[in-house]
Design goal:
By secondary structure, this protein is an alpha+beta fold. The protein contains four helices and nine strands, in the order ααααβββββββββ. The chain is globular.
């Protein structure tokens, strides 16, 4: 066995041994279906978290002020800590966009692309220690992204 093969196999074995043995994900569409059919953001937050009372702060939401194309709007959410992150918007028929569970000690720095049919608000909610923290950003859409 030459040196390259040895190093390649050794690093491959190391990578395999360091991967977690169990990963779990919650399918929120199955466990909280009403959150994904809610038409209003407050109702969706209530269905997902059990309350719609949020505290402004501790969440950084980045989205463009003006989106030239509503089909591809970059949104990012950052927070120091939390156990669940959800993104909502009020421009489409369904308010809930995405929900993430955060592993203990995980870093909340998520970036996604969303669709918005028209101008509206994007809201990020982070659950941390039984409290809900939120941030909202208005996004002006110049070309509709949902079928337009």
């Amino acid at each position: 066995m030459n040196r390259r093969n040895f190093l390649g196999l050794g690093l491959g074995a190391l990578a395999v041994s360091m991967t977690p043995t169990t990963l779990s994900a919650v399918n929120f569409r199955e466990t909280k279906p009403k959150a994904f059919t809610a038409k209003k953001v407050d109702v969706a937050i209530q269905e997902l978290f059990g309350t719609s009372k949020t505290i402004e702060g501790n969440v950084e939401l980045k989205a463009p002020d003006i989106a030239e194309n509503g089909a591809v709007i970059p949104v990012s959410v950052e927070a120091k800590s939390g156990s669940k992150v959800a993104i909502f918007q009020d421009a489409n028929p369904e308010a809930t966009v995405a929900v993430f569970t955060v592993p203990k000690g995980g870093i909340i720095d998520y970036g996604i692309r969303i669709k918005m049919a028209k101008t509206g608000n994007v809201t990020a909610v982070v659950e941390d220690g039984g409290k809900l923290y939120s941030a909202t950003k208005a996004v002006k859409v110049t070309i509709g992204g949902c079928g337009g």
